[in-house]
Amino acid sequence: VQVSHLQRLMQGLPASFQVKETRLDWHVRVPILILDFLPAATPSGDHFPPIQVDVSMGDLDSSGVRKGHVDRLIQGALSRSPKAACLVLLVKRWAKIEGLNKSFEGHLSPLAWTLLCLYFLVVTDRLQQNALTASGWDVPSPPSAQLCESCVSHEELAEFFDMVAGFQKFLESREKDRRGPMGIRLMPDCRPLTGRPDDPAVFFLEDPAARAVSINGVNVARGVKSPEKWRHLLSRCQGAAKALRAGANPADFFARRLAAGAPKAALRSKARPMAKNRTPTDPAESSELPAASSE
């Protein structure tokens, strides 16, 4: 229904709007139109740059979950752990640099990367299991200085990437048994879980917001359908872990795409904080954290 409304809207757009992008595919939880509004020229002939607008319809997403619910759950968890917020920020930055953060291109969405970070923190006892059960809209985000002081170490980041690379076993198991995609869930506890048999994805990551309202089996990673792309992503995670343990420069690690192999550098202390006392200067670094559900 939402898609049909958006398609009708496209057909009746005034000339001052141009469709820049559509995200109406089946794997998109919230179908949207991305429009450019073209302001009229001034009497002197000056032209203003276009204004980008995202348009969606209705209060619920395609799974029947109220829009924004997953963001509230995630913000509640992040606000209770500065280390969690730091890990999410760094991992999402890395995924963006690597080109692995767009579900409509067959990769994990920013939301999926965020949930993987929270799963990692819970299963390694760095975050309480119930951190996802409370709304975070009324909890202030930790200040930037606190994020720097509580930032994750090289080794903690490497452990995260090792965990994701280890999901290769889920793909191998599915190819052998021909069942639904294997993966994980975060609520009511963090553990492996198998998705629905008719789910064409190769990895399953259950949406905790859907589970919280008794809607089970909603796959946040439903756009990951290509085994080759999934293996590529897992390989990049494995390479990231090796690079971190080999002493990759933090500034390089989150500013450009690393080579496939670990760099030849002296091994640094595994406990050394990542980017401690550093204030992000790239707007993408400071703006990625709140947009957890972007697909």
Fold topology:
Layout: H1 2-11, E1 17-23, E2 32-37, E3 51-55, H2 69-79, H3 82-98, H4 110-123, H5 144-149, H6 154-165, H7 168-177, E4 182-185, E5 191-194, E6 204-205, H8 208-212, H9 227-245, H10 250-253, H11 283-287
Parallel strand pairs: 4-6
Antiparallel strand pairs: 1-2, 2-3, 4-5
Helix pairs in contact: 3-4, 6-9
Describe this protein's structure.
Residues 283-295 have a biased composition (Low complexity). Residues 265-295 are annotated as: Disordered. With 295 residues, the protein is mainly α. The protein folds into 2 domains: 2-55, no CATH class; 69-287, Poly(a)-polymerase, middle domain, CATH 1.10.1410. 38% of the residues lie in helices and 9% in strands. A hairpin with a 5-residue loop joins strand 4 and strand 5. Helix 3 crosses helix 4 (110-123) and helix 6 runs antiparallel to helix 9 (227-245).
Number of helices: 11
In this structure, how is the largest beta sheet organized? 3 strands, antiparallel
Spatial order of the strands forming the largest sheet = 1-2-3
Question: What is the CATH domain class of the largest domain?
Answer: Mainly Alpha
CATH topology of the largest domain: Poly(a)-polymerase, middle domain
